[in-house]
Amino acid sequence: MPAPGAREGIILVADDNDANRDLLVGLLGGEGYHVLSVTDGKQALERIGRDPIDLALLDVVMPGKTGLDVCLAIKSKPETRLIPVVLLTSLTGDDVRMRGIMCGADDFLSKPVNRHELLARVHSLLRLKQFTDELDNAEAVLFSLALSIEAKDPYTEGHCERLSKYSVAVGEKLGLSEDLRVALRRGGLVHDIGKLAVPESILLKPGPLTPEERKIMEQHTIAGERICAPLRSFRQVLPIIRHHHEKQDGSGYPDGLKGEQVPLTARILQITDIYDALTTDRPYRKALPAAKAFEIMREEAKRGWWDGSVLHVFEAVIHGYEPVEPVGSAR
User: Fold this and answer.
1) What are the domain boundaries of the chain?
2) Residue 272 · residue 163 · CB < 8 Å
3) Top-tier CATH class for 152-330
4) What three-state secondary structure class fits 7?
5) Beta bridge pairs of residue 38
6) Angle between helical axes of 159-173 and 264-278 (0-180°, round to 10)
């Protein structure tokens, strides 16, 4: 019996068998889902590139691109990899399931499809997709808030984007895992989001801050961590936000961490942050050339402020060569 009204979710059905395709479209359409259907893998990829698909039901055996090929293509692209994929097959044995798992499939259904099993799995996966979409929306709000802070000061235009790019490049040179590189990208964008809690009279003050004002400003790292803490996907970003103003000798803030107590991702971001501040115009001075900026930063690293091995790798990134010295503690 059809459910009243339309359900949320656009489902793509790809199957070269007319009877199978019509059956799936009928079952899902009868439940109020919006269903798109295609007859092969090439058409499936075209639809996914064009329409906001929430779930893909793919027959494994199709002419040309198989369901496995389509699944792999979906899961290989950042913009589509969160689309749940269910593979449909009449093949028996573990081989096809193992190959499907390797391609990133979220679930499997055997043909002939059981109506109740189909609807239960579709409902579950669409609910999961809704949660991930809500998470993306929450992240987008945080990024927008972070960029609104940047927009208050014309001298910092593009600062967050540059830090993201620089930090990820250093992470790649150091061989960091993908999740840490994602954290660096996000951290570059939101590291200063806690400045939302800093009064504009302090944030935009042209002259030196008083000791009381500096104490308030230094709380922005803790405020930023608190703002982003509810997002579980930001678990790896929180140490960057809280600790990107620590120093190797323990003289930084907010926790006075020393050496490798400072998370590597925070050490990477702070290096890129300092470089960007030195090489862009400020109200009190013109941008410094890269050579002069690195000269200053190397001296500060000798004083025990920054991780010299991370600085070495970052300099290689900026100048476009491979670091030849051991990175030591930067690993």
Assistant:
1) 10-132, 152-330
2) yes
3) mainly alpha
4) coil
5) 14
6) 130
Note the pTM of the prediction, 2 decimals: 0.63
The class (CATH top level) of 10-132 is alpha beta
258 beta partners: 249
Q: At residue 205, what is the residue type?
A: K
Answer whether 10-132 and 152-330 agree in fold. Answer: no
Q: At a CB cut-off of 8 Å and minimum separation 6, what does 62 contact?
A: 14, 15, 16, 39, 40, 41
Long-range contacts of 118-125 (CB under 8 A, 24+ apart): 118/24, 118/27, 118/28, 119/27, 119/28, 119/31, 121/86, 122/9, 122/11, 122/28, 122/33, 122/55, 122/57, 122/86, 125/55, 125/84, 125/86
Coil vs helix vs strand at 36: strand
Read off the tokens for 19.
């009877």
Per-residue pLDDT of the chain (331 residues; tens, 9 = 90+): 444 455 678 999 999 999 999 999 999 999 999 999 999 999 999 999 999 999 999 999 998 999 999 999 999 987 898 899 999 988 766 788 888 888 999 999 988 889 999 999 999 899 888 877 766 677 777 888 887 777 766 566 788 889 999 999 999 999 999 999 999 999 999 999 999 888 888 888 878 899 999 999 999 999 999 988 888 789 999 999 999 999 999 999 999 999 999 999 999 999 999 999 999 887 667 899 999 999 999 999 999 999 999 999 999 999 987 665 544 444 3
